[in-house]
């Protein structure tokens, strides 16, 4: 399976340590290769060309290089290549020139077919040539000199020499590759060699041990050699099936990126390595060692839902695949890009210097995403929000690291800054808040939530316009809690849906009780941003009205301006369904959002409520008076009803009436009351004739 995070095809920067290492190995390998070929004569080449064993070996080496045996936990970079068996057999049987030529042809063919870069192909050719040369030198120390015209077949007593040559071959090959990986991944050589040392030793022991058997079979008859392929084929098929199963369990099916499970494993490995380094540093200095930083990013695409809704999910899937490609080619070697689901990606930085360096990587990711994309004849401008959390600065383990990266990412979305580092001051998930969230979950089940009602009164004739239902929490220890103490927490979780459904049901039940007593008053309830994407809300309201025999005018939904002005919310199916059902909508907290006149005109609302922050300063601030008067005039022009919130004194009520405001709400007309008190208030008010609001 291809690893989408593999960046080994990237050409190293000229003059860098990796570039210098590659150059030295390639030059030395080329010199050894040339020296080996210099000793061959034309007669030797002709003799080998007429030997069918030579061609069989060549075919097996090429095939073995092209089709490595990849077992669970390995990739095409460290999978077992069966070419090792046959190239080592060629070394034992016909000497270094033949083995080097056959292995080089196989590496070049494999590299070209797999699209590897020339520098990588050249390094692999040099790597194998030097390893085979080292093994051949070991054989000569034992007095063994195989060659094209001096074919050698080992005896039982030659096994120590073969074992020594095999050990030298493995050590040289693994060392050359390990040094390249260490420079590429920016880790120590010891760490690079230890990553899969046990696996490599076991695999090479099996592959190299088969080489003498291949030589013996070749010497007896070329017909026996193909029989050796049968065990390889069986192992290959079983390994392929196992790898497919492992790949499906650890990777995302759409993008091929690692999934959350693999991200968890790799992050925990990085954290363990960082702690081990800190522990060793502490032991040397006999003090507390500073653990190296590990970075975890959470990246979420902005407005991706619009692509799915407009062009369909197939186009959205292709866009996600393109995003995955861009992200994997924008991170550093050794970093891991994973897809967590939907349009949410994670990036693991196993080592990172500090917060500034993490911000640089995040900025590079956003820059890669921002390049225009063309799909289906359309151009897209992608943007993403990135949240950063670092170990040990922000969290000690993976789960908390991911949670705090998520907090930072949502802050980046809300502030539209693009990149944010976790800050405890902006974390809505403090222990106290999490404790309250648990209490709130239990409060819903225990029926501790209660509705209070505050009247809305006409400023022209004193008629009652409606009652707004305001949720309160009768906390067993803290008393009655206002909404601002618990709703901001609920709005970030699934609990908001339960609270909204409870409020709607309780409000409808109270409205039905009032209508039965001839207290025909409209009850208004507040809807959150999450509610506008709850397709079940309309059905709940419709069923509640039918069950209680209430008209749609008995209930009004109040939606804050900043939520309803958001493009997805404005166009959501729920808003359209509520308007089609005939539920009156009110635009709450007007003046705190960014309404456009065009969108305001198109909104299916009957009422606009002027935010209390302007109304309370009406008598003291000329600027606020201008704002309120302009808003009242605008609302009247649009043919809607204006309602002022936060009216607490007769002077403010009088000024609003003079401006032409239709209705008002606030302590001057009545404080929020529980259901029993509100019922008594309504009865007393209905018994006396209405009068203009003072």
Beta-strand content bin: 5-15%
The helical percent reads: 55-70%
**Tell me, what's the shape?**
elongated
Q: Return Rg in Å.
A: 37 Å
Q: Find the count of extended strands (DSSP E, 2+ residues).
A: 17
Q: Low-confidence parts, pLDDT < 50 over ≥5 residues?
A: 1-6, 71-75, 567-571
Please give the count of helices: 27
| Overall average residue pLDDT | 81
Domain EAL: 433-686
Domain GGDEF: 292-424
Organism: Actinomadura miaoliensis
Protein name: Cyclic Di-GMP phosphodiesterase RmdB
Name the descriptors.
single chain; 694 residues; eight-stranded mixed beta barrel; 27 helices; 17 strands; elongated; Nucleotide_cyclase
Description of the structure:
The chain is of the alpha/beta class and 694 residues long. The protein is 55% helix and 14% strand. The chain is built from 27 helices and 17 strands. It has an 8-stranded mixed β-barrel, surrounded by 4 helices. A 5-stranded mixed β-sheet has the order 2-3-1-6-7, sandwiched between helices. A two-stranded antiparallel sheet has the order 4-5. The protein is elongated and about 120 Å long.
Helix-strand blueprint:
Layout: H1 17-38, H2 42-49, H3 52-66, H4 83-94, H5 96-113, H6 118-141, H7 159-185, H8 189-194, H9 197-220, H10 229-250, H11 260-285, E1 293-301, H12 304-311, H13 313-328, E2 336-341, E3 344-352, H14 355-370, E4 373-375, E5 378-380, E6 384-391, H15 398-415, E7 419-421, H16 431-446, E8 449-458, E9 464-475, E10 479-481, H17 487-490, H18 495-516, E11 523-527, H19 536-548, E12 555-560, H20 561-564, H21 567-570, H22 573-581, E13 585-590, H23 597-602, E14 607-610, H24 612-615, H25 622-637, E15 641-644, H26 650-659, E16 663-665, E17 673-674, H27 675-687
Helix pairs in contact: 1-6, 1-7, 3-4, 3-5, 4-5, 4-9, 5-6, 6-7, 7-9, 12-13, 18-19, 19-22
Pfam families: EAL, GGDEF
Keywords: Membrane, Transmembrane, Transmembrane helix
Protein name: Cyclic Di-GMP phosphodiesterase RmdB
